[in-house]
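Sequence only, no structure available. Ideas?
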Amino acid sequence: MPLPKEHTYTIDDIYNLPEGRRAELIDGQIYDMAPPSTAHQRILSFLHATIYAHISTKGGPCEVIPAPFAVFLHNEDESDLSNYLEPDISVICDPDKIDDKGCHGAPDWIVEIVSPGSKRLDYYTKLALYRANGVREYWIVDPLKKTIVIYDMEHDDGPVLHSLNDTIKVNIYNDLEIDFSRLRI
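Reply:
I predicted one. Tokens follow.
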């Protein structure tokens, strides 16, 4: 007896979700996203403000965009849109990747803030996907564990574990450090 076929979803299925329902599409499977907690939003605001301030004072082509913001990652076939993600923070240094729909290709730096329901996706599935698609740096901020795991994929370093009290150097920049002791959650 053959096994039942698994349904493969497409980007059209994401666009046809009911208003207000947020989900990501990874390798043709839809993963619903839970509403963020207050701690999640405080971390997101802190990181966005800190990164934005650095980029705006230094100039250059990079842009920081918080969720909800679409990131389209392709499989081997460039026309295959089976991966639609909404990272909590995306830093993109190639303006040609950005259009009205989102970022087409890998951001340079992605930060995911872990929610109880997203642990497996953030620590494993997205890590592999981001690594395979050329993300240079990936941070996983876990408010419950009070940790930050850093992958410097550009130099094949990591993971490096930090606490939410540390000052952490951003690897894609020579002159950006984020002092998490200033964060109030």
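Residues 3 and 38 are 43 Å apart (CA to CA).
Hope that gets you unstuck.
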